[in-house]
Amino acid sequence: MTTQETPRGPDAVAGLVLAAGGGRRLGGRPKALLTHRGRPLVEHAVAVLRAAGCTRVHVVLGAAADAVRERARLEGCVLVDNPDWAQGMGGSLRAGLDSLAGTGARAALVSLVDQPGIGPEAVARVRAAYRDETSLASAAYDGVRGHPVLFGAAHWAGIAATATGDQGARAYLKAHAARITLVECGDVARAYDIDTEADLGHLE
Hints:
Blueprint lengths: L12 E7 L15 E2 L2 E2 H11 L5 E5 L3 H7 L6 E4 L7 H12 L6 E6 L7 H8 L8 E6 L2 E9 L3 H7 L7 H6 L5 E4 L20
Parallel strand pairs: 1-4, 1-6, 4-5, 7-9
Antiparallel strand pairs: 2-3, 6-8, 7-8
Helix pairs in contact: 3-5
């Protein structure tokens, strides 16, 4: 990936979709390929980031990565393989942030593929909290921190150093709680996850 001039305006914030999960509690059905509104769920996640203003979108793939590439329309996205996807979200987050190095992006807006109830309006609110590479912001639902989360580039190394297993950035965010800008989104989004068979009812 070639180094580019540090972008200004919309290119400063890159979208990052974590879509590597194997859906263990869904009988081993990769979450990226679950059907939502007639198309793979990963397409929906990408479309939401783009509608919220992210012109650069990276997608971290893991389980059934080849099938996702075949079935999902992800033109214009940078697809990032996480061969250690089974070890948890932490590895996917590290792979995604690493893929943004050298692109000129000054922040990553991180979303999860299995939260289709979070639409462009909520994501755009969190994106609007970006100020510079030291920014740290998160959606909140009735005051409780959730996704998406915005990580300024100054935080990427620290997050990568602490992102292990299924914890993702949890430890880093806990240690830097006082610096997080919480952006209330409970009025425009529903922050459910598609984790179990019962959750599949949320898909359309």
